[in-house]
Amino acid sequence: MSLKKVILGILIAVFVVLAFYLAYAAGSKSWPFKMKYQVVVLESGEVYFGNFSSFPQPKISNAWMPQQTKDEKNQVGLQLVPVSSSYFTPKNTIYLNKDKILWWADLEDTSQVVKIMKGETQKVGGTEEAPSAPQTSPNPTKTK
Asked: Which H or E run contains 117?
């Protein structure tokens, strides 16, 4: 048997084993391409949470952002809202300028932020609630 046939046989065997593994692992904890959640901080101070990817262009899918809120007692708090809930209702993906990204980091699955994005909890910091569905402001107010 020639060397080319042996190498071809090995490549086919590796491909078949890999295909069986991916078919078995799909949807399970051993799936190697699990979507992770990240925090991205921009030079402007804006903070976004979601699924960050840098190729071919930096973007955040399933994007969420913190929003400042005030309660009846005028106490300031934070609420995590999907980007799509903005009054102009953008799609839930943000494309970024790579030169404006200060840093990004992976979030643990146990993070409260990740649990909110996955819909597993409604509380932020034990006090504020995140919306269960995107909400839009019908009339944004202007201040003079």
From this structure: helix 112-117
DSSP 3-state of 27:
coil
Indicate the pTM of the whole model.
0.60
Dihedral sign from CA coordinates of 18, 108, 66, 101: negative
The residue written with tokens 């839930």 in the block is 92
Side chain identity at residue 74, one-letter code: N
For 10-42, b where at least 16 C-beta lie within 10 A, e where not — what string?
Answer: eeeeeeeeeeeeeeeeeeeeeeeeeeebbbbeb
Residues 25-55: pLDDT tens digits?
655 555 556 678 999 999 999 999 999 988 8
62: Cβ contacts below 8 Å, ≥ 6 apart? 50, 51, 82, 92, 93, 117
In angstroms, the CA 36 to CA 89 distance is 24
